[in-house]
Amino acid sequence: MSTLVVVGAQWGDEGKGKVVDVLAEEASVVARFAGGNNAGHTLVVDGRKLITHLVPSGCRYPGTRCVLGAGMVIDPEVFRAEIDELRVLGLLAQDELRVSLDAHVIFPFHRAIDGLREDRASTAERIGTTRRGVGPAYEAKAARRGVRVRDLLDVTRLRERLAKNKDALDHEMQRLGAEDQALDLEALVEQGLGWGRWLGPMACDAGELCARAIRSGEKVLFEGAQGALLDLDHGTYPYVTSSSSIAGGVCTGIGIGPTLIDEVWGITKAYTTRVGRGPFPTRLTGPAGDRLREAGAEYGATTGRPRDCGWLDLPALSRAARLSGMTGLCVTKLDVLAALPEVQICESYEDDVDPGRDGLEQAVPRLRSVPGWGDPAILEGLHAAKDRAGLPAAVRAYLDLIEEHTQVPVVLVSVGPDRAQTLRFADAFS
Ligand code: GDP
Prior knowledge:
Layout: E1 2-8, H1 16-24, E2 29-32, E3 41-45, E4 48-52, E5 65-68, E6 73-74, H2 76-88, E7 97-100, E8 104-105, H3 108-120, H4 134-142, H5 155-175, H6 185-199, E9 203-204, H7 206-215, E10 219-227, H8 249-255, E11 263-269, E12 272-274, H9 287-296, E13 308-310, E14 312-313, H10 314-324, E15 328-332, H11 334-338, E16 343-349, H12 355-358, E17 365-370, H13 376-384, H14 393-406, E18 410-414, E19 422-424
Parallel strand pairs: 1-10, 1-11, 2-5, 2-10, 5-7, 6-8, 7-9, 11-15, 14-16, 15-18
Antiparallel strand pairs: 3-4, 12-13, 16-17, 18-19
Bound molecules: guanosine-5'-diphosphate.
Guanosine-5'-diphosphate binds near residues 18, 42, 335, 414 and 417.
């Protein structure tokens, strides 16, 4: 048995795309278990930047099956465009892509509602969603009126599901000021059936596909979206995503039991970023934050929004490690810190605020300056290192500090966006 779950250990954008891309080379199946096209993974393939929003990051390896699980919400228009782009690059053969019959589908009315709500909300109430309809699609799922991929294959069921949405949403559209946007049931049925025609051949029982692969000894990689602190149940509610972004989400979002999971690797940047609203104790405002944003090119892969930046938050990271039962940590973007004149790290919060018990709203970080950064030799040393012992002393001390606080070994470091700029200290698959 050989399975690895890769999840974000912060508020998303940790560099999961690159790490999954590196690790996927060994896997025969890469399956994504949560989220929709509110996530964006950046891969660099032969120097060319490629952003995938729905297709798992293993898509570049011929023969690797890429699976979109039941826990995802899929916008077929976006999915189609992404597949076309990948095929132009010669990636992703037809039989390498599979979609769960139970994944939910985003319709244009989900996007419309998402945008209208954000527009109408007061600044204080705005969540800062990506306006892609992801939240409303998950809402429909919980309200038992969601449309699944399997519903696109059955006209009676599709019409019945869409009629339920019309009943529920026409009134809300009106209330949000879009009186002229009542749902056109028959047009939506046609649209859904059209999607079903090309999605149908790749639809499957994704849990069974993964379980069978695991049973026959294949290596299966489960790819998370967003990060632990955005998890619907355990994140900084209500400023969270609408799905389960911790490792437990694999079980529900794919349809396998926890006993099939071997390893869980969490991805963290060497500092912290966040987009959207919500608490962020180590957030830097002013020039210090700007410097970190520019050094790390911290602009969203999906929306282009500038990310808020701050120092690494060890109490929050430790909580994320516990929530996912991490067996390894991957630290990305170490090169970004090397460019800065000063680096700090948060080891605890004032007044012993506990992130699980007290939440992060009141957390004031106790920061410690870390010696040795802002030195060009560090960057050179990072790029020249072949193993952990070869890393500059200041970097090793930084990694030691992370391990000491989280009690999770650092298994991989990333020192640049390219897949070659990666050092691995452990095997991904047992
Ligand atoms: P994801 O959603 O977690 O995959 O993260 P994103 O892809 O949105 O953001 C990560 C960004 O950082 C991408 O532009 C990557 O190419 C880039 N990146 C990943 N690892 C490194 C690294 O070690 N150093 C630098 N400088 N950039 C990195």
